[in-house]
Amino acid sequence: MPHTSNKDHGSLAHNVLGLWDGIVLGFASAAPGISIAGVLGGIAGVSGYGALLALLVGFVPMIFIAFSFYHLNRWRADVGISYAWVGRILNPMVGAFVGILILIAFVVSNSFAIIPAATNFLTVFSSTAANNKWLVTVIGSIILALITLLVATGIRLAARFQWAITAFELTVMTIFGFMALHHGLTHRHTGSTPSIHWFSLHSAGGGTGLLAGLLISVFWYSGWETSVVVNEETKKSRRNPGLAGIGSLVAVMGVSIFFGALFFSAVNPVDMSKNSAWMSTLGLQLAGRPWGYLLVLAIMAGYLGGIETTIITFGNVGYSMGRDGVLWRAFARVGDKSKMPWLAITALSVPSFLMFIIQVWSGGSLSTIVADLASSLGLMFVVYYALTALTAAWMLRGIAKTNLNVALTGVLMPLLGAIILVYIGLKTWGGTANPVKVTFIVAVVAALAFTAISRMRGTSTFYQERVKGALTEADMSKAGE
User: Fold this and answer.
1) Per residue in 323-347, pLDDT tens?
2) Is residue 311 a contact partner of residue 147, using CB atoms and an 8 Å limit?
3) Exposed, middle or buried by CB within 10 Å (0-12, 13-18, 19+), for 250?
4) CB atoms < 10 A from the CB of 236, how many?
5) Please, what is the end-to-end C-alpha distance for the chain in angstroms?
6) Fewest CB atoms within 10 Å of the CB: 73, 84, 145, 424?
7) In 3D, which of 360, 358, 283 has the Cα closest to residue 117?
8) 19 burial class (0-12, 13-18, 19+ CB within 10 angstroms)?
9) pLDDT at site 370
């Protein structure tokens, strides 16, 4: 069962979300629509048409990681997810580090989404307005404030909003996706016919091109775990969130490859990689004004959904860390009616806002900023996902001796997922741009510093709660009582 409140903190709303709510939230958090619009060009730039192969191969370690989340959530339904699991199974200091790294990654990810959300909105009115830094600053600030308020109002309202904008986004993208396919089939000089050869290593530019695309694909799939982050607010909290995470990841993979192929038929990888606004340009080319702007609004809807689910994630993780006293206990305060950790949500939205402002007014181009952020986030997620998978394998090593299903999905698959992700990270590190490396190193150092400060404060019992020895089936059942 989900954790209950005590005198030091409030309780989140229980049993208000269903399995499909979790799938939609995880799908929206991974945001395949906006990844196609904003990240596919980056993968295409290094992998060509083989970007689709990179997405397919990148899905394999991620689905393995998803099974580790499923099993860990069966043991302990905690909105702190990897922070709570790694800390209690492997080592409390490592768990605290992972928790802070999650917060940093999602705060950075949130700031990354605000700019395109604002520019896509402004594009509907004027292409010049989208390039006006003052207008982008104002609209972006309003978007972040409104979405933060929406999330703080309650998880049920946030889920309903997510259902609505996801339905709109997928409907519009489906219409324009088939229009793009028709364009590609009838304009052979500018388009291409979808081909199974796009999934070949040759199309990806060989092993080097595939590996470069794989690192970005880690960021592409990241966020699906929002399905699990709302575990304490979900019905059947030990079962549904893990299943929702797996379901949302499968949906993200299918939608990404399907729409990626449709849009590749109208826009080749080179043009896509050189034009960060290729999707809005394509929408106007296919449908003209004003209907072409529907695709722009669909992209914006995807960014709004991504911002919302990111806020839910860092709000809930911050709440769990505050509840344990690893971060400020005030982060565990919840609204009397909303049952949302409003202080954690608000406080962690502030650095997102500041980073958004820095990005808008920096000298680099939007495409360069997006590429660096995407790659640095990929490295952060490699560390956090790999540690989570290793935790599941270590926790279930005893049960795996007598349970074949657990041995396969709880130990072997998570271990393979962690190994593959670490391999991808190490192989691409040498060719990673210096700004990407600096962003990643700064994040890791900041997480280590916050962890050290938290431990030296000595006010949290979390650092003495490590589970000793391998868990048994009886332990798993007892954990849910």
Assistant:
1) 999 999 999 999 989 999 999 999 9
2) yes
3) middle
4) 14
5) 6
6) 145
7) 360
8) middle
9) 53
For the chain, which residues make up each domain, given as ranges?
A: 21-476
Query: How is residue 257 written in tokens?
Result: 């490859």
Greater model confidence, 197 or 77 = 77
pTM of whole model > 0.85? yes
- Assign 3-class secondary structure to 197-230: HHHCCCCCCHHHHHHHHHHHHHHHHCCCCHHHHC
* pLDDT for 366 beyond 60: no
Using CB atoms within 10 Å of the CB of residue 1, give its burial: 0 to 12 exposed, 13 to 18 middle, 19+ buried: exposed
Grouping H, G, I as helix, E, B as strand and the rest as coil, residue 87 is helix
Top-confidence residue, 369 or 152: 152
> Crossing angle of helices 206-221/413-429, nearest 10°?
120
Token representation of residue 277 = 């606004």
Instruction: Report which residue type is found at 237.
Output: S
- State the pLDDT at residue 243: 96
Distance CA 210, CA 215 (A): 9
∠ at Cα 253 (229, 57), nearest 5°? 110
| Contact present, 98 and 443 (Cβ < 8 Å) | no
**Which of 76, 101, 478 minimizes the C-alpha distance to 326?**
101
Give 395: exposed, middle or buried? Use CB within 10 Å, 0-12, 13-18, 19+: buried
pLDDT at 7: 46
**Fold (CATH) for 21-476:** Amino acid/polyamine transporter I (1.20.1740)
The tokens 């793009």 sit on which residue? 180
